[in-house]
Amino acid sequence: MAKIGINIATGSLQKEEMIVGIDLGTTNSLVAIIHPETRQPVALREHNSSSLVPSVIYFNEFGNVTIGEEAKQYLITEPHNTIFSAKRLMGKSYNDIKANASFFTFKIIDDNTESLVKVQVGDKFYSPVDMSSFILKELKQRAEHILKTPVTKAVITVPAYFNDAQRQATRDAGKLAGLDVLRIINEPTAASLAYGLGLHKEEITTIAVYDLGGGTFDISILQITNGIFEVLSTNGDTYLGGDDFDRAIVKHWLQQVSMSEEDMFANKELSQTLRLKAEEAKKHLSSNETFEAEVNGDKLQISKVEFEQLIEPFIEKTLQSCRHAIKDSKITVQEIDTIVMVGGSTRVPAVKDAVSKLFGRPVNDSVNPDEVVALGAAVQADILAGNNKEFLLLDITPLSLGIETMGGLMDVLIPRNSKIPTKVARQYTTQKDGQSGMRISVYQGERDLVQDNRKLAEFNLSGIPGMPAGLPKIEVSFLINADGILVVKAKELRSGVEQSIEVKPQYGLSDAEVENMLLDSITHAKDDIAKRALVEARTEGEQLLETTEKFLTKNASLLTQEEIITTAEAMQALQLALTMEDKDLVHKKVEELNDISRPYAERVMDEAVSSAMKGRTIEQAG
Fold first, then answer.
1. Active site residue 70
2. Which of 130, 138, 211, 218 is catalytic?
């Protein structure tokens, strides 16, 4: 394997454009390609180094970014400036992750809204899209360095349970990193492709993909019919993985040397040393009966039997997920043809044995479990490049389809290269109190602002009953049928008011026009994402000003003079920030206004609740 790093940079690569496969992982990420000579998928690595790039991002005091192995050392020394597990934040709002916010050592902004969660490092604010784009940019640069050729096109993998927003966030991150994301595919689908499953048209097979990584676990059951992959069911735990095995070993050792976890955490260097030793022990015990080491003069030891007892509860949790997935898939264990193992933690013999026992047959782990997803993405990339003629590619949409949202932004419902027929629905709401109509404008294209895309159709949904802003639930659905005809429907769910329109196939664009629109989207990616971020920040700022003003008008008598003056000053500062071209400044002023208003808003709410309670008791007494 070591030679490939040098071998691969052959002259033949200069002539044709490479499409790479990327596994953007929670713990590690990597890039793979189909080797031009052997036609086999290989993970890119430099000489003897690992193909894995830790998904860790470190920001130094000047805002410069370091990714990967180098960044890992700062997890202990500068935890607030070092971002890990950014994938868990993809497509999430603060409300989605607040239950697990303590897991992260960096500052996650609680802006109490449904907008994408933001992370603060110094005085800058980053979205999960920004953070994932830093990792993808690093992978792109490494690939270009190894291949000695530009890399601009990629297939990126995501978990099967990722929703629309998370897939779109992954696409945006790719675009921001300068990559044209040709397809987002499910990780279990990629793993199956790496094993050559589903590559033969007449094949009908059912597989289970057991994926246990460093920090996450998921199980997917897929059915492959004529090269079409269908996810029958998926289950898992986003906070379970090999890291838990390491922690169990550390706890075991702490008992041996009679040390408390508090004492260990107080000594950052010691806790990091123990964690790394535990990882070493876990790997060693895959092929040995005991492990011994010395740390700070203390002798540490653990046997394979002890280790397997420690991790048994974690393995059992994964098996529980497997049982749920089998039940949800409506098929029996006997009907599953192959069990594919993915993720470094599946190397633990106890894991393999337990999974094999549950499914009643040996597991398939002949492909490197760390690399299998990226290798499968490379197989898919090769199919898209037209090099694998055997494989049936379903008809797909040439460009993204979406609607215009607040601030003139394009909200993509059906990303380009989606298989058709397909149907997607998303919910929206009104911006103003008593709003009775909503204009639905349908656009096609890859740019972030609708003005740069092509308008396909427009219609009004009228007759929405008068309700306060944010209360109506308007579901917009896009359906592309097998003939490529797009049907757009808008329905207010509370009242049942509905309106729809048909848009004819091919959307009237030639291949050259499609190509130009794609090129534009890459050329302007940086500007577009910056504009989108600014528009979103401004929208958020304007909404906050409006709600604060309403609150002040209603509750002025309950506020002190000083509170009113400081709020007015913060509102003025935010108003001024909205006129500048600086999203971080807007975020900062939003944050400041939130900090000022939060204490008195809570006080007013508490008073309102307690007076309501009093009123109720008097009423009952009467």
1. no
2. 211
Q: What is the pLDDT of residue 165?
A: 74
pLDDT at position 341, please? 96
How far is Cα 128 from Cα 263, in angstroms, rounded to an integer? 33
Task: Report the DSSP pairing between strands 454-462 and 437-444.
Answer: antiparallel
User: For 488-503, what is each residue's pLDDT tens digit?
Assistant: 999 999 888 888 887 7
At 621 the pLDDT is: 35
370 flagged as catalytic: no
Long-range CB pairs of 279-288 (<8 Å, 24+ gap) are: 279/246, 281/249, 281/307, 282/242, 282/245, 282/246, 282/249, 282/307, 282/348, 283/347, 286/347, 286/348, 286/349
Q: Please tell me the predicted confidence (pLDDT) of residue 230.
A: 82
Q: One of 87, 92, 118, 491 is an active-site residue; which one? A: 87
For the chain, which residues score pLDDT lower than 70?
1-17, 102-103, 111-115, 201, 389-396, 482-484, 504-511, 611-622
Domains annotated for the chain, with CATH where assigned, are: 4-195+369-384 (3.30.420.40), 198-366 (3.30.420.40), 401-513 (2.60.34.10), 527-621 (1.20.1270.10)
Task: Kindly report the pTM of this predicted structure.
Answer: 0.73
Q: Is 87 a catalytic residue?
A: yes
Two tokens, residue 299: 């002798």
Q: Are 401 and 450 in contact (CB under 8 A)?
A: no
Quote the tokens at residue 597. 């208003």
Q: DSSP strand E in 285-337: where?
A: 290-295, 298-303
Clarify whether 526 is annotated catalytic: no
pLDDT value for 107: 81
Catalytic residue among 130, 138, 172, 187: 187
